[in-house]
Model the fold of this input.
Amino acid sequence: MNLQSCGPRGIFRAVVVLLAVSLFGCSDPPTKGGNNGATNNGATNNGATNTGVVPPGSCPDAPPIPEGTPTCRVNEECPENLVCAYLPSDGVACGAACGPMNDCVSDDECTAPQICRTYTIDQSCCGPVPGNTQCDVPCEPDGCEAGNRCEEDGHCRPIPCDDGWDCGSALVCDGTRPTADEHGCALGDCEVDDITCPNTYVCDGTSTWKDSRNCAPVRCDAGFECPINFDCDPTAPVHGCVQRACEDDQACDCGACVRGVCHPRIFVCTELFAAPGG
Done:
């Protein structure tokens, strides 16, 4: 632009235009479909906080991704030593570290009045891990984890279902059954026991898809509504819903088409760590 030929008023207008372009850019607002507004250079801020951003066009339940994280559809779009995955790694290597940590086995290994107590502890990305032991003072009446009670020997133990613990409507109180848990609650049979099948399940011992309780899932061709980006296939297991196949984002209800199926959002480049227990 030749500013000298514009005069003072023309120069002023040109400066205003240049400032507007530099501050707000000149690209169109993102729309649903296409590449969902995400590129391999990372998702835009979109007004999100430091907790992460959700790329435009993503499904309502799509988890956010850290700001500046490169997005992708195949591994080849990621920098070296990174892989294309749905969830970004939290940087903690799970696997061998998962499992209970035992500082003692019996009360004899502890110095009185301490005893060998058992706890459930959150271990990094492994989640709650039960069965951890350490020497500690005997429990107090209200000092046990939920579902346990403090007994006379100072140990916290599960409350039995025949002494106050409620098994709920889907289980029966019978500690002799192979499926009984620490409270004595066991899987029942809806055709024999007084139990209620979970929501979206019905009591049907003749169903091909029944579980050990004779509870069968309501099928998608008999009233069950498949979630977003899933289609009904009467030959598929459980409710009969299968992840929708796609060739591009427009085939999806929302989100992105990655590796031939619809996902809640585009994938991200992340480090590869072992899965818990792996």
Summary: The CA atoms of residues 252 and 262 lie 6 Å apart. DSSP finds one helix and 15 strands in the chain. The longest helix spans residues 7-24.
